[in-house]
Design brief:
Blueprint: H1 3-19, E1 23-27, E2 36-39, E3 44-47, E4 81-85, E5 109-114, E6 125-129, E7 137-144, E8 152-158, H2 166-170, E9 171-179, E10 186-194, E11 201-208, E12 214-221, E13 226-231, E14 234-240, E15 248-253, E16 255-264
Antiparallel strand pairs: 1-16, 2-3, 4-5, 5-16, 6-15, 7-12, 7-16, 8-9, 8-15, 9-10, 10-11, 12-13, 13-14
Length: 266
């Protein structure tokens, strides 16, 4: 089967899901069939390897140039790159997770990762232009925080396309997981915030797997003007949110992000 046909099948399957009123956005960060993904304005199929920058690649669904990942991609700046890991037990199958070219039968799990090892921690962002729906919806992903004090991994919705320190000043809603002790497994501080750092916040100690995947969910009710956040099955709380939609979803900090969905909620 031709590579182009594989992308058409992938697009068709997710289009059907969207038409059913369920999935509005999906990203597995898989390396793609034959280890290539569409990139830039014309969607040229571009090779993907471990450490390839995510910026410029089309999102998995909608597979469209209008939904292109954005991140700083420059020497000396910690950016978000494609990475590979053991399987994510929470992630459903996708044609975008395929065996590496010349790499045998094993199918690595793709994810986005920011190592942030170039000195002091910097809150670097990975964003995709995804307008929020006008009805109740949920954003889900699995985060892989790093067990380093002073580092955090966050998921959020924002109206700003700034690619560093975005969520602190501009996020409408966001959740971040912070390590409490360097190199220690088991527990982290989960914060749920609205309106950057200026708005209300709820926080709680939660079990955290710093070597694995931690499910995070934000449910937004744009009619009732509330949002509820959950980390590893623990509800952090419900907070009031400002009226109006958001233009971008994404991640901030260091560590990994995987299996991103935006769905209409009940």
């Amino acid at each position: 089967m031709k590579l182009r046909n594989l992308f058409i099948i992938t697009l068709f399957s997710f289009t059907c899901l969207a038409q059913s009123g369920t999935v509005l956005f999906r990203e597995s960060f898989g390396f793609g069939p034959a280890q290539q993904r569409p990139k830039s304005g014309k969607g040229k199929l571009t090779p993907v390897f471990v450490a390839t920058g995510v910026s410029g690649f089309w999102a998995e669904f909608p597979a469209d140039k209008s939904v292109t990942w954005m991140s700083v991609d420059a020497a000396g700046v910690p950016g978000w790159n494609f990475a590979a890991s053991s399987p994510n037990p929470y992630e459903p199958p996708t044609p975008m997770q395929a065996p590496l070219v010349g790499g045998g039968v094993d199918v690595p799990n793709g994810l986005a990762y920011c190592f942030n090892d170039l000195g002091a921690f910097r809150a670097m962002n990975l964003l995709a232009p995804v307008s929020s729906p006008k009805t109740k919806f949920e954003v889900t992903a699995e985060l892989m925080p790093r067990p380093i004090v002073g580092h955090s991994t966050a998921m959020g919705l924002t109206n700003s396309n700034v690619l560093e320190d975005n969520f602190e000043g501009s996020a409408t809603v966001w959740v971040r997981i912070l390590a409490q002790v360097t190199g220690v497994q088991g527990s982290g501080l989960a914060e749920f915030r609205v309106r950057g750092l200026a708005g209300p916040v709820v926080s709680q100690q939660v079990p955290v797997d710093f070597n694995g995947f931690n499910p995070v969910k934000i449910v937004v009710d744009p009619v009732g003007l509330t949002a509820t956040a959950t980390v590893n099955g623990i509800v952090l709380g419900t907070l009031p949110i400002p009226a109006g939609g958001t233009k971008y979803l994404g991640f901030e900090g260091s560590g990994g992000a995987d299996d991103v969905f935006v769905r209409l909620a009940q």
